[in-house]
Amino acid sequence: xxxxSKPFILYVPGGFDPxxxxxxxxxxxxxxxCDVRDSYQLVVAxxxxxxxxxxxxxxxxxxxxxxxxxxxxGYVPDDELIALYSLCALHVFPSLYEGFGLPALEAMACGxxxxxxxxxxxxxxxxxxxALFDPMSPESIGAQIMNALTDDNFLRxxxxxxxxxxxxFSWPDAARRALDAIEHARSNWDHRGSIIxxx
Length: 199
Fold this sequence. Notes:
Layout: E1 8-11, H1 22-30, H2 34-37, E2 41-44, H3 50-62, E3 70-72, H4 78-87, E4 90-93, H5 102-109, E5 114-117, H6 122-126, E6 132-133, H7 138-150, H8 152-166, H9 171-187
Parallel strand pairs: 1-2, 1-4, 2-3, 4-5, 5-6
Helix pairs in contact: 1-7, 5-8, 7-8
């Protein structure tokens, strides 16, 4: 259905604006050693407009990525997205900025070995310093992809970490933390209605 015919590197961007950093991810993938690149497809799973699709496929062609090696799935329903997360050889999240980075956490909750940007909220979401890369550097992204795909012990440890780390995040826990923050702010509000301080 999605033209995935071999083990794959997965990116679920949650959108197609420039901060999603497709250019550097595709440069990193294109620069992988041929034997590694030929063994893995790069799959971007997200709904895209026709213009976005044409632009990304054109960029892949300009980078010398062989036809069929770069796959844009289009819209993927939730049950099939869970399957993609569960089946991928590696999940990569190279975004330049995320308020939280929910797709990375979704992937980890499905047991996907995940590497990501050392930017904004993603270090907290990924939860491992040795699983991060510089999103501005295709070389850094590519080196981390290579590390994960060629070191079985590292890849196994990423997979184990994903399942355990994802359990630290939950909607009830997020609600509790938000309520704690609100109560903390309220306790620091003096009788004149001005904030004394927020720790």
